[in-house]
Amino acid sequence: MIEKMIKWELRRLFKNKKFKIAFILQLLVILLIIPLFGSYVRALEEGGFFNLSVGGKGYLPIGIYSEKNSLTDIISENKRIEILWLDEKKGFELLESGRISALLKIERDFEDNLRSYKSSTVKIYINSENPKSIPAYSELNSIILGFRDGAIESRISNLSIVKPEVELVYGPPFGNNEIPKNENSQGIIQEQIQIDTTNILTNPSNFEEQIEKTRKSFEDERGGYIVLLVLLLPLFLSGGMLIDLLISEKEKKTGEVLLALPIKREKIFYSKFLSIMIIILFQLLFWITALYYFGRVTNPLIILPLTITAILLLSITGLIGVYSKNYKDSALIVTVTFIVLFFFLFGTSTLYLVGLKEVAAISPLSLVIAIENGTYSTKETIFSILPSLSFSLILMFASTALYRKDEFYFGPRPSITQLIFNLAGKLQIKSRSYGPYFIALIFGFIAVLISIILEIFFGIITIYFTESIFVILALWAIIEELSKSIGIFSASHYYKLKWHEGLMAGMASGLGFAIFENIMFTGFALNIFPDYAVRILIMRTFLSGGVHIVSTGVIGVGIADKKYLTLTFIIGVIIHFGYNIMMLQGVL
Amino acid sequence: MRKEIIYLSIKEFKDIMKEKVYIFAFLLQLFIVIGIVLIGSSYAYIQTYVDDPGSQGTYLLYSEVEGLSRYLTQESIKSVSLRNKEFNGALPRNIDGIIWAEKNNSVKVLLKNQSNLDYLSESIKRAYVKAKLNGSINEEILNPISIAIYPENYSYSITDLFFVEIMQILFIPLILLLPIFLSMNILSDSIVGEKERKTFEILLASPLKRIEIILGKIIPTFIISIAQILIWIIVLRVRGISIFNIPILIIFLSIIMLLLFSMSIVFSNISSNITESNLFLTLFMMVVTLIMFVPIPSENSLLKEMLSYSPIIPIIKISSNPSINFLEIGKYIAIYLGLALVSLSIAIKGLSNDENIRL
User: How many CA atoms lie within 13 A of A9 on its CB side?
Assistant: First the structure.
């Protein structure tokens, strides 16, 4: 039955106008990219982006107070520079007002001096209050220096001065040559790459050093980075199609007919999911083969992490599709998720390029870069595949659970709070004495994931406005306490809690949070500084575990007795925040 | 302006404000704007390490020619002197290679990254010649130009250089156009939504002209976009990123808005439901972003001439220069105002065609 349904869905997709346009668009992009690819990579590597970008034309308005000469000819060839010929007074006036970002003053007899082996001075005036003076000065400076070098070269050859021979050697040419011949400069580069992958384990703290370390390899890896951009396109385009399949059934009311079919509801969901997955795989294969054929991809194995990314993307969009009421709803949530996902995927792979490979490896896209550069290891592979795959599985489970509910077809759609209480209801156990604590404990686990997402989101916004670490620590304390409280609220929805039971439920939620957080921390620690992992685990278990339990316990009292809710919440947050500050002082 | 348009605008404005989705979209944009600035600064930070225009690297130097190190510094090559010719062992991490300069016009270099060789060897040759001839010929010969910078002790950080460039050329225009793109969606949702709900016919039965209905729908989206643009400008200010000529910028962006909004109405006219209009808009925006923001390595002169009229150029000129030439900007304003009026008239014509409204 499910095969039949997949066939239906596929047939429907291929008839869809939207899909056709998306596919043609992709073909166009691939056709465009292959010939342009090389020149793009080169342009980006040479920092030529600004010269090629449309908006860069005439970006730097520069005043020149001089007659036309060979130097100004060269300056006027630069497309980014817009020249204004001015007299001195007008020049300074415009520089002051910001109409020009730099004023160039060249001596009257510049051309004569140049021919008669004399020296001249070129004066650059800038207005340091204008931010554009920086690029203007930098650009002018490099043009003039290039011109100067050319002038020196021509003088040297005119005067037939003997220039030295510069010879490239591959090993120290003098003294007792201890380095074997084959360890030439190539060898040194390879040695550097080895440092990148192994040495970081013991010494991860110095961010700048790591950037420096990968400075050289960065240039090679940038090519792989652009491949990523290209390959993500089919993924993001297909993500929208799953939502289309799910929502169109709701809008056209055809879903009800489907539900009447003698087939399990989750199978309907899976058939939609799988048919899109087939299309994505087909597209990826097509793209990778094409790019491989044209030499833009070095290792077709990258299809593995890309498939994992596709599953992650589809499971997220699937959940959105199941939850949304209509297109308008879904369109916005999808945009949000795609942007957040895009930031996550690209942020982590940028971190990877910068050298924080251990942290960044969590994104499957980092693995794409690693495979492209041939530097992947089994550990890295597992580390980048497992988290996203398990996250996808959780989301898929959630989607099918929601899909089984009638409310998502016939309405009214339950709110998120109701869904949370529903989940808590599922967790009810018979024993009255342990029930609330069990719910709180499980929600404590979930609270870790919620708080991580919120902490990143609001942390970024806060960092933008203030760099005060205290504000961020306070923010994080509030977010963590709020997400831990969800469990207690859910427990109190089903069980009438007395104050001491509220305390216990809060402590259970804090315990769940602490356990899961510690597991994650230890996982990271094992990967980054394995020597300290056990110590970190023990320290965290006693210190942070205790704080989470105490602070949420206090809040639990307030939730049981709503009178004190605000007060206890503030106390809980203060305990947490105080601990955060103490930890910070300890670290410093 | 008639009162009814204002009533309609207020009603539309309230409708938009009621939609939780749009409030959410606003928060999302805040996140994007901040994310863009953070991306800009990390780009600048990374680029500083990858490609420092003011330095050709640091090298170990063994020199038999006096003063070579000083002349190498002039060529932006930093050097650390070696006492002996011999060098054993691996190169330290912060050293890019070794230069051995002997008296008899022979220089040997060992490089970590050989792709620098061509450029580097020219610099070394010049420095070598200068050092060797020092004192024996007139110094002016080998120093044709000296650059003087005023204010005299001016210096800048390279990170700032990259940051200013990428923000001014790429990200600030992007941030300024973001609210307009979003409002195009709001506008077409509102028009197509009326079609889907069959309420457009009721609106047409009211004593409003069609252009007035359009105005009533454009005005609130217009106000929302302008408000958002102003908020983003303030948000950027927090980080010390200045945007200049705000009044003229707003005028120009309003004209661009009028153009894009009328196109959005045209798309709503030809599409029968929200899915279709969204598809049109997405494709349209992709094309627009591609043309405006993606660098085009092409030497085709016709294409170049066309691209030089891209609206991104005046936006960058207005927002990045403290003072501008009004005549030059006036040219762009005239062109885009003309285009906007043409597309607005097409939009009104499309709307007066009853088939477009009744599906």
Answer: 29
Query: Would you tell me how many other CB atoms lie within 10 Å of the CB of residue A565?
Result: 15
Mean pLDDT of B18-30: 79
Do A495 and A519 lie in a common domain?
yes
Statement to judge: residues A404 and A427 lie in one domain: no
Cα torsion at A109, A111, A113, A114 (round to 10°)?
160
Closest CB to B316 among A18, A59, A176: A59
Q: Give the Cα separation of A561 and A565 in Å (integer).
A: 7
Residue B238 corresponds to which tokens in the numbers above? 């927090």
Alpha-carbon dihedral A533, A538, A543, A548, rounded to 10 degrees: 80
Find the closest chain A residue to B86 by CA distance.
A175
Residues A146 and A288 in one domain: no
Chain B hits for A461, CB-CB cut-off 8 Å, are 30-31, 34
The whole-model pTM stands at 0.77
- A129 and A109 in one domain? yes
Q: A186 and A271 share a domain?
A: no
**End residue of a domain, out of A385, A410, A435:** A410
**In the predicted model, is pLDDT for residue A210 greater than 50?**
no
CA neighbor of B293 nearest in space, from A53, A233, A33: A53
Q: Which amino acid is at A398?
A: A
- Domain match, A400 and A266 both: yes
- Alpha-carbon separation of residue B332 from A349, A574, B315, B317, B328 (angstroms): 40, 57, 10, 11, 7
Strand, coil or helix: B33: helix
Task: Clarify whether residues A535 and A424 are in a common domain.
Answer: yes
Rounded Cα distance, A572 and A560, in Å: 14
Which chain B residue has the Cα nearest residue A120?
B145
Residue in chain B lying closest to A41 (CA): B297
Q: Distance between CA A514 and CA A525 in Å, rounded?
A: 16
Q: How many CA atoms lie within 13 A of A164 on its CB side?
A: 31
A53 found inside a domain: no
Burial label, A326 (beta-carbon count in 10 A; 0-12, 13-18, 19+): exposed
Nearest to B100 among A71, A174, A331 (CB): A174
Beta bridge partners of B59: B79, B97
Question: Cα dihedral angle (A275, A281, A282, A283), rounded to 10 degrees?
Answer: 110
In terms of residue numbers, what domain contains A137?
A: 60-203
Alpha-carbon gap: B315 to the closest alpha carbon of chain A (Å): 9
Tell me the three state secondary structure of residue B137: coil
Ramachandran quadrant class, A47 (left: phi over 0; alpha: psi -120 to 50; beta: rest):
left
- Look at residues A348, A391, A388 and name the one whose alpha carbon lies nearest to residue A370: A348
Judge contact between B227 and B237, C-beta under 8 A: no
CB contact under 8 A, B89 and A179: yes
Chain-chain contact of B293 with A161 (C-beta, under 8 angstroms) = no
For residue B312, which residues of chain A lie inside 8 Å, CB to CB?
A: 54-55
ipTM value, please give it: 0.87
**Domain ends where: A389, A410, A431?**
A410
Q: What is the CATH number of the domain that holds A89?
A: 3.40.1710
| CB-CB neighbors (< 8 A) of B107 in chain A | 164-167
A49 located within any domain: no
Count up the domains in chain A and report the number. 3
Q: Does residue A475 sit in the same domain as residue A401?
A: no
**pLDDT at position A42:** 58
Contact A212 B93 (CB under 8 A): yes
* 8 Å CB contact of B112 and A101: no
Q: Give the three-state DSSP class for B81.
A: strand
**Measured distance CA(B134)–CA(B142) in Å, rounded:** 9
Say if A360 falls within a structural domain: yes
The 10s digit of each residue's pLDDT in A310-355 is: 898 888 888 888 888 777 777 767 777 777 777 777 667 666 666 6
* Six-digit token string for A247: 């929502």
**Average pLDDT across chain A, whole number:** 77
